[in-house]
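Title: Prediction job returns without error message
Component: structure pipeline
Severity: low
Priority: P3
Assignee: unassigned

Description:
Job completed but the reporter wants confirmation the result is attached to the right record. Sequence as submitted:
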Amino acid sequence: MSQNKGIRNVKYLKKVIISSDVYAVCIEHALTNESQEIMGLLVGEIDQIECVTTIHACIILHRSDKRRDRVEISPEQLCNASIQAEKLCSILDRRVQIVGWYHSHPHITINPSVVDIRTQSTYQLMDPLFVGLIFSVFTYNKLMHDHRVEVICFQADPDEEKVDVPLIINNSPMKLCNLEAICNLPKILIEEEVESHNITNNDTKDPITKLHNEACKTLAVTHIVSKLSRPLCEALIERLNATKLRIKELQAIKNKLTR
């Protein structure tokens, strides 16, 4: 779709279609950190003629810089993500590529910041149909007395203003690659914690400080295991049991129809 901004002719997405399992992975990732932003990349297909992007998978990245108001990815991570996206072509049996990025806004609104829009503009230099998703998590609704999860799909225009893009969630079964992404999430978070604490320990020679840092690292890893790994395992076991029950029910229906 073409829109005019002054004398410039800019191409924007008409809509973005995301599979329900990718949507679930993104939310699961966003809910892992209440104080810092998280980030990942979206893999899918772009219809250049209809200006429609379909998202089939996501790649959870190891953060090189962790802050409350921003997150950065190293060039090495982007390179590895591109290689991973190429491998997904054979797994998904589709010609997929990196089509967008997502990150979280813990305790703040879904509206993209100036930095977010500037980052989006940079990505659109590579592909004008590159898309961004923001998940707002841990936002308390005083009226309903509950926490809400919201999402926005956007692009940036040449004047670095937000361009809203309709987002459609397509109900689909869990793909193996997205199931593996969820299962690998605790491992990635633990690697981030270990790397962060190791850097801190290398900067000090005081044995008491080193001991304190090691204790903090152990506490952080334990927190990930108890708050994420264990509930995740329990949820996957319940999902497996539900799937087995559904298979049994369908087998009974098949036998009845055969008779």
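Comment from assignee: result matches the submitted record. The longest helix spans residues 207-258.
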